[in-house]
């Protein structure tokens, strides 16, 4: 694609360099080569621009400063990150499936498929389940009984969606994810663990993405719900009856116990652990490897285990780092006191 075409399709204006250069791929600003496009959206990376070998770079006018390579065309735009993401999609399109229902797929006689649905080999779709228009079920995926999947969804290989799950439109579920397994619930009676039946289901709203090997348990009674626009990373465990709001981010290796509420726009960074029946307020930020044992206020930023206000937690860590030095001073002072007492 020519730089001029790329600029037009990504809401940018070309300046300098040779705008008739052909662009074949995208790369980061530190490794980009000729015939590649890159992006500069953060001033701390400006130092890499003057030596960049890229043929084009998305940038705002505010970041244009200093020496610009002669062969580099600047693609000036309001939001370089979004323009660059659009360019990546154009230059690196997703593979296009030959839309078909594989002869090796197994579909129950009461299942229904919408228009232009793709079902890969060895995928199975259970009784009374429905798949919306233009959705893709890749090889080896298991869709249980009475499952509803909306339009334009993409279920990757070997994902498992248990019975009675409800999936909205434009949902992506990556390989190995398990939606709707039993929650982890037991009662200890007569010196043994008695399993709690889980007869609920999972509801996932529109535009949600579920990472690879993530598990979302169904409700014991009622639903586990994931709100529209939320994004859940790989290797996340979401327990039964959790209510996740809209546009929530949950990063990898996080574990959320049962019956929690995570309100709209909250962010849980990597390896966050959340105890049961906790409420995390709207737009709260839980920093990496934090342990949440109580409710978090809306908009709060917390860190540590147990988690507390991030500024308090950082001060405590800074003080802890000084502890060896303080111990040495204390021992020296103690020795002086003992000597005075002799």
TrEMBL record:
CC per GO annotation: membrane
The catalysed reaction is:
a UDP-3-O-[(3R)-3-hydroxyacyl]-alpha-D-glucosamine + a (3R)-hydroxyacyl-[ACP] = a UDP-2-N,3-O-bis[(3R)-3-hydroxyacyl]-alpha-D-glucosamine + holo-[ACP] + H(+)
Segments forming domain UDP-3-O-[3-hydroxymyristoyl] glucosamine N-acyltransferase non-repeat region: 23-89
InterPro entries the record matches: Hexapep, LpxD, Trimer_LpxA-like_sf, UDP_GlcNAc_AcTrfase_non-rep
Q: What does this protein do?
A: Catalyzes the N-acylation of UDP-3-O-acylglucosamine using 3-hydroxyacyl-ACP as the acyl donor. Is involved in the biosynthesis of lipid A, a phosphorylated glycolipid that anchors the lipopolysaccharide to the outer membrane of the cell.
The protein's matches in PANTHER family, at most eight in alphabetical order, are given as: UDP-3-O-ACYLGLUCOSAMINE N-ACYLTRANSFERASE, UDP-3-O-ACYLGLUCOSAMINE N-ACYLTRANSFERASE 1, MITOCHONDRIAL-RELATED
UniProt lists the family membership as follows: Belongs to the transferase hexapeptide repeat family. LpxD subfamily.
Descriptive protein name: UDP-3-O-acylglucosamine N-acyltransferase
